[in-house]
Amino acid sequence: MRLSFLHLPFTLALFFSSLAQADSKAFQTGIEFFKQNRYAQAIEQFDRALQQGDQRAAVHYNLAVSHYKLNKLQDAQKHFRLAARNDKFYSLSAYSQGLIEAKRDRLQTAIRYFEQVRKDSPLYARAKRMIAKIENEFATRNKPYTDFIDGSVNLSFGNDSNVNRANDNSPRNISDSYNSVYASISLPLGKQHTGIGFGASYFNLNYSTLNSDDFSSLRASMFYKTRLGDWKTRSTLSLSSSDLGPTALQDTTRLSVAGSKRLSRDASVKLDVQLDNIRSGDVQYDYLQGSRQRLRGAYRTRFDKLRVDARYRLELNNRDDLANQSFSPTRHTLRAISSYRFTPRLKTSLDLAWRSSDYPAKGTNPGRTEDRLRIAARMQYRFNKNWLLEGFARQTRNDSDNPLYDYNRSDVYLGVNYRY
């Protein structure tokens, strides 16, 4: 089953071991083995303590936990029942037996045990969360497979003031209106395997006049989601193909691994790495093929209706390059995003990003460094759980020690999004 945190609060067992009477030598030895994760040896010592007349609930409880650690659930449950005869161990044993029944997929029986945890117990709130998780599990099993399919379709109309990202003195510094379409879908293997599946996405950007700058990309992927300790992880292998104007641009194989961890109710961190292998789709773009690695760290916190994200990304490139010019920059990006929800339907965000790029020398070309500053504002209005209207505006300033690569750009669009 998908229920998480099926672990026992065994540290409480060590605390309760000091109750009632002085610990026997066998019991103390068992505790030491337990702390070292040597559960089979711990069981031998706890059994010896019982044989020597130490019938305390603490002995039975620690013996039960040791059996649980070795997946001997029937033996564990036997000793939890014996420990529960002591009032101080009643709620702790009831909670533990609920975990065993949940692990056995006997969910109704698990609920009955969790309901026995008393309100004055430190485990009461945790038992309530387990009941909620089990009830959600029942609801999940009754859902049709189509409820687990996720995706969206977005249609936007906008204007780009500098399509070619040329400097202000260049005749190529041309603006144009455009429309774009983005569609994605995520398909899990099944209701019981929602952490594994397939995905696909398509993006098309179509300019009104500058058709040579039209861009499209098609991506197919496989994903695997799991939990490693306190981390939620997602690993993805994807293949994509893109076109620029009428010409194939490049094909990319990407392996990405991302993990997120909640630090508190209002704060979390995320780490992800992307490894790209890039192949040109046409001989004229051979200088761009090669490899790219990206590493990003992010921190998110919330203050009531305000959410703040701080991010850093390192990018390394090893492209084929031209004989006299490098296209393999090392990049550092700092980014801050603040989002504020005015109402349940209306949300705004402000996005500020600074990127430094260092292009190494190549041949007689001394290389160059660039600093790019972007500021963007976004407003979203959600009509219902499926439909959303979005307005977006962004200003970009790129400064380079080579004036040919200085440019300004503004980009605005209005879009509608449908999520299913």
CATH H-level superfamily title of the largest domain? monomeric porin ompg
Structural class: alpha+beta
CATH topology description of the largest domain: Porin
Tell me how many strands there are. 14
Elements, N to C (H/E): HHHHHHHHEEEEEEEEEEEEEE
What CATH first level of the largest domain would be assigned?
Mainly Beta
Instruction: State the end-to-end CA separation.
Output: 26 Å
> For the report, how would you describe the main beta sheet?
14 strands, antiparallel, barrel
Brief sketch in words of this structure:
By secondary structure, the chain is an alpha+beta fold.
What does this structure look like?
The chain has about 425 residues and is an alpha+beta fold. It has two domains: about 10-140, Alpha Horseshoe (Serine Threonine Protein Phosphatase 5, Tetratricopeptide repeat), CATH 1.25.40; about 145-420, Porin (Beta Barrel). Helices cover about 25% and strands about 45% of the residues. It contains eight helices and 14 strands. It has a 14-stranded antiparallel beta barrel with strand order 1-2-3-4-5-6-7-8-9-10-11-12-13-14. A hairpin with a 4-residue loop joins strand 10 (about 330-340) and strand 11. Helix 3 (about 40-50) packs antiparallel against helix 4. The two termini are about 25 Å apart. The model is unreliable at about 1-5 and about 10-20 (pLDDT under 50).
Question: How is this fold's topology laid out?
Answer:
Elements: H1 10-16, H2 25-35, H3 39-51, H4 57-69, H5 73-83, H6 90-103, H7 107-114, H8 124-142, E1 150-160, E2 176-190, E3 193-207, E4 215-228, E5 231-244, E6 247-264, E7 267-280, E8 290-303, E9 306-319, E10 330-341, E11 346-359, E12 368-382, E13 387-400, E14 407-419
Antiparallel strand pairs: 1-2, 1-14, 2-3, 3-4, 4-5, 5-6, 6-7, 7-8, 8-9, 9-10, 10-11, 11-12, 12-13, 13-14
